[in-house]
Amino acid sequence: MQSASEQSEAARTPAPPAPAEHAYPDHWEADVVLRDGGTARIRPITADDADRLVSFYEQVSDESKYYRFFAPYPRLSAKDVHRFTHHDFVDRVGLAATVGGEFIATVRYDRINAQGLPASAPADEAEVAFLVQDAHQGRGVASALLEHIAAVARERDIRRFAAEVLPANTKMIKVFTDAGYTQKRSFEDGSVRLHLDLEPTDRSLAVQRAREQRAEARSVQRLLTPGSVAVVGAGRAPGGVGRTVLRNLLGAGFTGRVYAVNAALTGETELDGVPAHPSVGAIGEPVDLAVVAVPAERVPEAVADCGEHGVRGLVVLSAGYAESGAAGRERQRALVRQARSYGMRIIGPNAFGIINTADDVRLNASLAPQMPAAGRIGLFTQSGAIGIALLAGLHRRGAGLSSFISAGNRADVSGNDFLQHWYDDPGTDVVLLYLESIGNPRKFTRLARRTAAVKPVVVVKGARHSGSAPPGHRVPVTRIPHATVSALLRQAGVIRVDTVTELVDAGLLLAAQPLPAGPRVAILGNSESLGLLTYDACLTEGLRPLRPLDLTTAAVPADFRDALAAALADETSDAVVVNAIPWVGEDGATEFGDGEVLAASLREAVASAPAPTKPVVVVHVEMGGLAEALAVATSTRPAAAGRGAVTTENRAAGAAAPAGAGTTGSAPGPSAAAPPSPGAVSGAAPGTAAPAQSGTPAQATIPAYPAAERAVRALAEAVRYGQWRRQAAEPGRVPEYEDIDEAGAAALIEGVLGGDGVDDRGVTLDTEEAGALLARYGIAVRPTLPAPTPDAAVAAAARLGYPVALKTTAPHLRHRPDLGGVRLDLATEEQLRTAYAELTEVLGKPEELQPVVQAMVPRGVDTVVRSAIDPAVGAVLSFGLAGAPSELLGDTAHRLVPATDRDAAELVRSLRTAPLLFGWRGSAPVDTPALEELLLRVSRLVDDHPEVVAVSLEPVVVAPRGLSVLGATVRLAPPAPRTDLGPRSLPRY
Predict the structure, then answer these.
(1) In sequence order, what are the beta bridge partners of 260?
(2) Strand 457-461 relative to strand 495-497: parallel, antiparallel, unpaired?
(3) Per-residue DSSP letter, 823
(4) Is the dihedral of CA 316, 321, 324, 329 positive or negative?
(5) Mean pLDDT across the stretch 20-45?
(6) Which of 355, 479, 568, 792 is surrounded by the most beta carbons within 10 Å?
(7) What SS3 state is found at 565?
């Protein structure tokens, strides 16, 4: 897959001048995931690469060479080698993709002028040419190189690429045409001439992200579905980490080949009945996955052994890395660099392992002693201890897993990669994540939003209040508080919970039941008190409960069945909560026994419903065996011949289902069908199980909870998620405003940042500049006139017109009306002078108070609108009411920029104090449409101009008709690079 002829270039153009010396651009180096899930390193070509280039060229076929040079070109001359390895990194740039340190592909550009001759800036066009080794064609190498060489070119002020391609070279033509850039094509002198505009477009960004998703999903799939596994570090004696993993692999019934590797072994031998060898190389057969369980100091040797013999991925259980201090962090960086140099991806180090319950894989490459039951939940954790707890909790509740990953320090493969995989994995219906840090919040939010549009994503975040990342986690620093991060995750459709228990509670419901169509909840049961507790819990969670139906303590299972069937058929409710307590007869016998009779009755009622359109949850108090009976009776797992569902409520915590318990749906892998419609949120469970092998659809579990509050909280999360799904089906829009002067704002910003004394830290605009910039976006700031003396105050009032307000602007008094630094409704000169005298007498001298005068505006509700750019998550738009109570309660709403009209409406309505805007206690409702428009204009300003790093409008007085911005602060700074808009790459190490 190659392009761009140079057959007669030397003859038709003068030799280029010797390149000037430029510093090596190490920021162009990047690791990328290719189409098949392997990795490659992209880096600039230097003069030291001559031998690598010659070796690479010798392995390219004659046909590929012909496509590259438009003529037979069997070998490179010394002049060619010099030319292709000596670049100035400005007008002439070459990049290479490498695996194992050797070239597998190259790309280069030469800046040219309008006549096609070598040139320097300001010429903004370059000729580009590719060459890919035949063995690596079809892996997406050229597409990745095009993204990176285009980013380099834009950095060097090159705006267009030109390329000549032979018509028969259809693969290379497709690389260009599929990239998504604006392009022109012509046919000249027997070749196809392509011109690409390098400015990113919506289509090019969509293409890039689609390729990223496919590649990263494939890389995870390769880890989860190996055909062969080697356990490196399996000891001769029973026990030890390596031997434990080997035993777990065999106990789970792994369907592929298993090998034990121990450097102390000599000759042919076996461990636990599988072939054992002193090294991976000695196996003599392909190995897809290696589980590394040797001391940290021996890991580099093991990685080299794996990489040199074609291993595709590693699970590194070894500890002693970044979690152990500075030396460990450097050891971890070296580990990642070494593995990536061979094209391998890593789970870990310090990992607990991975599990795939698919029946055609049955992989337990972890320290979990037994294989979890198969099901529809994908589980990712960054903690082995939490992973053990979650496995036990889900098992006790009758829930099965599609896959499980405990990534430890997640130096390479992270939760983002597994979101890419689970997005279109047909075997996973619900995603559960335990995170202690988020390495790339921008990307995580983007991936979570896309995944949440087709299946629930539930997250619990640990280390929320520690103020730093956990040991071993390499993450960007964020300045925004945890509450803001949570709000942004919810905006992306993520179900955000606070505890591991809530994670299990929500996951169980979402995997087993359909999403509710609304917030109306029917409550029924045999305990009036428990019904009232459930009713109160619903109100607390913002649901709309119906009057509880008390079946009385005399109710028998048939009464529950009839009542539940009626509630499911009733169109006035969207969900049903069933409360159950034991009924003890006169003879002291428990009527419901161990709960199996009641479970059967509830199952019968659900089965009799026309369609599973409403979720049903059960709250039980001292109903021994009811939860277990519900899980067993209506398992989420497809039934398979000869296998029964094993779930025991009373089993000790930490126990796991026996190996072989349950079966699974489809094997992980790219879905053959399109992802489900984001709008399809009722009528089918998100966790609907795949058909059983017998062809009989499996029924959904009825989740049971030991407390009303837990059941209702999980139900409320499902209600909110269902509402988000319905809204995501019809997303809002970013409105266009004809009066916005984007070019004028850009010129003003450029003038400020280009001035003397402005550095990378930026500058805060003065009042006049801030007002002028905001005016370009249709945001009018009420004029404020300084009043250093009483006479100046009177003159200002005469200019503005009475009545006026007199305010102090000293930093310690600004926006602090509680300190008495504001006087309102001053209608005459006498009142103004009196107020001035009172302020200066009580609070200090005028030069300390910095008093100003403003014209009075219509009364309304004081609010605050802010936007700021955080280095980790990007631009954030915030809204709240002004004043100490809102600040004290943290009652501020947040949305990511750019905000849509739907986001603006939700911002205004999501505050706890929002009723003050809508006529609380008989007050006049304020002009919320004007407020929403202001929020959208601020969002547009920040989105259009990343140099605007902070905006604060305070106060914004929203009246029944219109609003008034009384104060504004704007800060500008050179924008930080947007890593999420650049070419695909893995985090740097």
Answers:
(1) 231, 276
(2) parallel
(3) E
(4) negative
(5) 90
(6) 355
(7) helix
- Among 351-355, 458-462, 759-763, which range has the highest average pLDDT? 351-355
DSSP for residue 456: -
pLDDT in tens, 244-302: 999 999 999 999 999 999 988 876 688 899 999 999 999 999 999 999 999 999 999 99
SS3 (DSSP) at 590 = strand
- Helix and strand numbers, DSSP H then E, in the chain: 28, 39
Please say whether the beta carbons of 822 and 806 come within 8 A.
yes
Count of alpha carbons within 13 Å of 396, Cβ hemisphere only? 19
Share of the chain above pLDDT 90, in %: 62
| CB distance 946 to 978 below 8 Å | yes
Question: Which long-range contacts link 7-12 to residues 24+ away (Cβ below 8 Å)?
Answer: 7/69, 7/70, 7/71
- SS3 (DSSP) at 568: helix
Residue 54, Cβ neighbours under 10 Å: how many? 17
CA distance 805 to 818: 16
HEC letters along 144-189: HHHHHHHHHHHHCCCCEEEEEECCCCHHHHHHHHCCCCEEEEEEEC
Query: Which structure tokens are listed for 504?
Result: 């299990």
Residue 811's Cβ-count burial label (10 Å; 0-12, 13-18, 19+) is exposed
Q: What single-letter DSSP state applies at residue 922?
A: G
Tokens of 716: 């409320």
Residue 946 exposure: Cα atoms within 13 Å on the Cβ side: 8
Calculate ∠ Cα 464-468-474, nearest 5°: 110
**The pTM is what?**
0.82
880 with 864: CB under 8 angstroms?
A: yes
Peptide bond into 871 cis (omega under 30): no
Per-residue CA distances from 305 to 159, 245, 270, 281, 358 (Å): 44, 20, 20, 7, 29
> Is the preceding omega at residue 426 within 30 degrees of 0, hence cis?
no
Is residue 112 over pLDDT 90?
yes
| Whole-number average pLDDT of the chain | 85
Phi and psi, residue 433, nearest 5°: -130, 130
Decide: 849 and 821 in contact? Cβ < 8 Å: yes
551-581 confidence digits (pLDDT tens): 998 898 999 999 999 999 999 999 999 999 9
Structure tokens belonging to residue 831: 């009142």
* Those residues with Cβ within 8 angstroms of residue 485's Cβ, 6 or more apart along the chain or in another chain: 438, 441, 461, 478, 873
pLDDT at residue 733 is higher than 60: yes
The amino acid present at 422, given as its one-letter code, is W
Question: Residue 25 pLDDT > 70, yes or no?
Answer: yes
Give the pLDDT mean for 916-937. Answer: 93
Write the single-letter amino acid at 178. D
Residue 470 has a pLDDT of 54
**pLDDT for the residue 58:** 93
pLDDT of 971 reads 94
The CA distances from residue 474 to 127, 335, 469, 989, in Å, are 39, 14, 8, 10
Q: CB under 8 Å to 905, separation ≥6 — which residues?
A: 932
Give the C-alpha separation, 87 to 9, whole Å: 17
- Give the CB-side neighbour count of residue 60, counting CA atoms within 13 A: 30
List of residues 6+ apart from 291 with CB closer than 8 A = 229, 230, 231, 232, 242, 245, 314, 315, 317, 353, 365
pLDDT at 668 over 60: no
pLDDT-derived band at 219 (thresholds 50, 70, 90) equals very high
Residue located via tokens 């930026």: 762
